[in-house]
Automatic annotation (TrEMBL):
<dbReference type="InterPro" id="IPR001128">
    <property type="entry name" value="Cyt_P450"/>
</dbReference>
<dbReference type="GO" id="GO:0020037">
    <property type="term" value="F:heme binding"/>
</dbReference>
<dbReference type="GO" id="GO:0016705">
    <property type="term" value="F:oxidoreductase activity, acting on paired donors, with incorporation or reduction of molecular oxygen"/>
</dbReference>
<keyword id="KW-0560">Oxidoreductase</keyword>
<dbReference type="InterPro" id="IPR036396">
    <property type="entry name" value="Cyt_P450_sf"/>
</dbReference>
<dbReference type="GO" id="GO:0004497">
    <property type="term" value="F:monooxygenase activity"/>
</dbReference>
<keyword id="KW-0408">Iron</keyword>
<keyword id="KW-0812">Transmembrane</keyword>
<dbReference type="InterPro" id="IPR017972">
    <property type="entry name" value="Cyt_P450_CS"/>
</dbReference>
<keyword id="KW-0349">Heme</keyword>
<keyword id="KW-0503">Monooxygenase</keyword>
<comment type="similarity">
    <text>Belongs to the cytochrome P450 family.</text>
</comment>
<feature type="binding site" description="axial binding residue">
    <location>
        <position position="66"/>
    </location>
    <ligand>
        <name>heme</name>
    </ligand>
</feature>
<dbReference type="GO" id="GO:0016125">
    <property type="term" value="P:sterol metabolic process"/>
</dbReference>
<keyword id="KW-0479">Metal-binding</keyword>
<keyword id="KW-0472">Membrane</keyword>
<dbReference type="GO" id="GO:0016020">
    <property type="term" value="C:membrane"/>
</dbReference>
């Protein structure tokens, strides 16, 4: 008998044979049990202690967790800092759909218009 686990969806004892088991982090991230109103953009979810262990897992978890985790977070932070401090930007398609197959992505590639702020902030 397999049991549902909040962080993995389904966990089975060793004697249960499954051909394949696919886990999708995106589905865990949209679980309202851990992330109330999951469609809402709400950065306050990450304040204080943040989400419970194994519920926010963009880099996986455990011994095979992504070893590029810290590097990727730093690179994204530096990129975002430079974009938001040096440029204003606006979405060109306001109703662009996001599809999950299984990674969420904007269907048209999220075209944006960038314009430089008058004063460059460094
Ligand atoms: C936003 C960027 C990235 C995301 C979201 C990401 C996500 C992931 C995820 C979900 C896994 C599987 C973890 C698991 O099985 O529990 C993984 C594995 C891995 N990632 Fe990343 N990753 C990113 C960037 C990078 C970078 C920059 C590097 C190297 C410089 C890297 C190297 C690896 C390697 C080598 C593995 C395999 C680890 C193993 O199987 O033991 N990743 N990554």
């Amino acid at each position: 008998m397999c049991t549902k686990q909040p962080w993995f969806g389904l966990v089975c004892p060793r004697n249960v044979q499954l051909d394949e088991l696919h886990w999708i982090a995106h589905i865990t991230h949209k679980n309202p049990q851990h992330f109330p109103n999951p469609e809402k953009f709400d950065p306050t979810r990450f304040e204080g202690n943040g989400p419970a262990p194994y519920t926010f897992v963009p880099f996986g978890a455990g011994p095979r967790m992504c070893p590029g985790n810290e590097y990727a977070r730093l690179a994204i932070l530096v990129f975002m800092h430079n974009v938001v401090t040096n440029f204003g930007w606006e979405k060109l398609l306001h109703n662009e759909k996001i599809v999950s197959d299984p990674i969420p992505r904007p269907t048209q590639g999220l075209p944006i218009r960038l314009y430089r702020h008058h004063k460059i902030i460094t």
